[in-house]
Amino acid sequence: MKLVVIGATGRTGGEIVAEATERAHDVVGVARSAGEVGDVPVHPAGELPALLADADVDAIVDFTVPEASREHAARAAEAGVPYVVGTTGFGDDGLAALDAAAESTAVLKAANFAHGVQALLRVVEAGVEALPEYDVELTETHHAGKRDAPSGTANTVLDAIEAARGETLDRTHGREGGHRRGESKVGVHVRRAGTVRGEHEVVLAGNDEVLTLAHRAESRRVFAAGAVDAAEWLAGRDPGFYGFDDVL
Ligand SMILES: NC(=O)c1ccc[n+]([C@@H]2O[C@H](COP(=O)([O-])OP(=O)(O)OC[C@H]3O[C@@H](n4cnc5c(N)ncnc54)[C@H](OP(=O)(O)O)[C@@H]3O)[C@@H](O)[C@H]2O)c1
């Protein structure tokens, strides 16, 4: 399979290049400026339309920044090339751009490509449904270089909690001062430190007990492997919007 990896020089993109190369895919890198990752050539983003004009490209994987991913999605749509995006932190405009691209090509977006996080989402929903009266709090930890907070995964977990509760909860970000917790709230706590790959923990507490549900990524390779799984699955699919749960 011929794969264009955008963000190839990045922390996650570099792992995606390594994973795809190990699986014997033909990989072309794209970043802001030209270079190389291992033996893989990296082209400047301005060359993306020309690279996609090559009819052999089977899929794109993009792990960059939301402003750039909007453009990359549009280029993928123009060329009709399936597009996997792991970038997080999209605003409404960015999400609308992905929706628009999905009218012309297959688009797969996931805030987290770890198989364990997909399982965590199901387990959290089951826990919240089973314990409707319990307080829910979420804590996430990532490396000091992460731009968006809370993480895209944390937001996805919060959406799952709300779906299970059947209501929109007041998301309380951090806490200080002399206020009681109150009901219909979910606490959201963000830590940024060192090189932590990604940790998410949900606690459900009440009735003199605490249920803790947690996931920890031990290396970025887990995201890379999931993203390449997604690209292999998406190649040749019809236009539309897909999620990682479709792949699994
Ligand atoms: N979905 C998941 O499972 C998952 C997992 C991990 C991370 N992420 C997300 O993936 C994104 C990247 O994270 P990271 O830690 O890998 O970031 P990073 O190390 O900062 O790498 C960013 C990459 O994007 C490239 N880039 C930035 N602006 C660009 C532009 N305008 N055009 C083309 N390329 C551009 C950079 O190229 P230069 O080096 O040339 O600047 C670099 O290759 C973040 O949104 C992060 O939250 C998602």
Give the second-level CATH assignment, the architecture of the largest domain: 3-Layer(aba) Sandwich
Which CATH class of the largest domain is shown? Alpha Beta
- The share of residues in helices is 25-40%
Average pLDDT confidence is: 96
Q: Whole-number radius of gyration?
A: 19 Å
Q: Can you tell me about this structure?
A:
The structure is a single chain. With 248 residues, this protein is α/β, with parallel strands linked by helices. The protein folds into 2 domains: 140 residues, 3-Layer(aba) Sandwich (Rossmann fold), CATH 3.40.50; 102 residues, Dihydrodipicolinate Reductase, domain 2 (2-Layer Sandwich). It contains 8 helices and 13 strands. Strands 3-4-2-1-5-6-7-13 form an 8-stranded mixed sheet, sandwiched between helices. A 5-stranded mixed sheet has the order 9-10-8-11-12, covered by helices on one side. A hairpin with a 2-residue loop joins strand 11 and strand 12. Helix 3 packs parallel to helix 4 and helix 5 runs parallel beside helix 6. The two termini are 20 Å apart. The model has no long low-confidence stretch (mean pLDDT 96). The chain binds NADP nicotinamide-adenine-dinucleotide phosphate. NADP nicotinamide-adenine-dinucleotide phosphate binds next to helix 1.
Helices and strands in order, then pairings?
Elements: E1 2-6, H1 11-22, E2 26-31, E3 35-37, E4 40-44, H2 48-53, E5 57-62, H3 66-79, E6 83-85, H4 92-101, E7 106-109, H5 115-130, E8 135-142, H6 152-165, E9 170-173, E10 185-192, E11 199-206, E12 209-216, H7 221-234, E13 240-242, H8 244-247
Parallel strand pairs: 1-2, 1-5, 2-4, 5-6, 6-7, 7-13, 8-10, 9-10
Antiparallel strand pairs: 3-4, 8-11, 11-12
Helix pairs in contact: 1-7, 3-4, 5-6
Bound molecules: NADP nicotinamide-adenine-dinucleotide phosphate.
Residues 6-13, 31-33, 45, 63-65, 68, 86-89, 110-113, 223 line the site of NADP nicotinamide-adenine-dinucleotide phosphate.
